[in-house]
Amino acid sequence: MKGLGKALGASAIFLVLLVAVYWTWMRFGRVDVVFYSAIGCAVVAAALAALPLFRAKAFAGFTGLEKTQLLAIWLLAGYAFAISVPAVIDRSLSFYYLEKLQQRGGGIRADAFADVFTREYIVEHRLVDVRLTEQLQSGTIVIRDGCVLLTPRGDRLARFSRWFRAHWLPRQRLLMGEYTDALTNPFRASTDQVDYACTSAALPSESSSSK
Questions:
Q1: Residue 141 pairs with which residues in a beta bridge?
Q2: Phi-psi region of 33 (alpha: psi -120 to 50; beta: other; left: phi over 0)
């Protein structure tokens, strides 16, 4: 039980450091992508918490393996925090709708939500700028001569995403009172006649997209 208490104490130190590092980084640091920066905060907090874990006499009773396992648990907890709290709140349309309902006095007509999305959400959250920045930082797109182009990495991710969507997303998903497989292939109703495609742009090579 002593060992468990010490492990919990060390984990409490990690959590305090995680909150402190995250708050400091988000308040004063420059952030390219919220999710990646939150993971960076978790890594920094785990590294700081590992100093007393591996050096302090209070934790001398732990074996090297136990200390390493505890460090791995902290990193996993930091990842869970990054993807479950800041990334979700930053990206979630569901949270936005709740906030918008609150802003508008608690109620909005159901038939107005499409307009709320296109006229308010996209503008207020600078959705296009945010998503393009994330993809640029992730190396999945490049922007050349006014065209947004998939990189080979982006092409692979898009292929995987469409395969997963077609084969592993629910075929009976509840959408406004109706069970449907519409989201397993959302492009099925898309038109081929568009005037925004960069048809003459070639897919960047692996070497050129990494520059």
A1: 150
A2: beta
Q: Which long-range contacts (CB under 8 A, 24 or more apart) does 82-85 make?
A: 82/35, 82/38, 82/39, 82/41, 82/42, 83/35, 85/38
Residue 80 is predicted with a pLDDT of: 96
What's the pTM? 0.77
CA-CA distance, 55 to 104, in Å (whole number)?
A: 54
* Start-to-end CA span in the chain (Å): 54
Average pLDDT score over residue span 96-116: 95
pLDDT of residue 6: 82
Length of the chain: 211
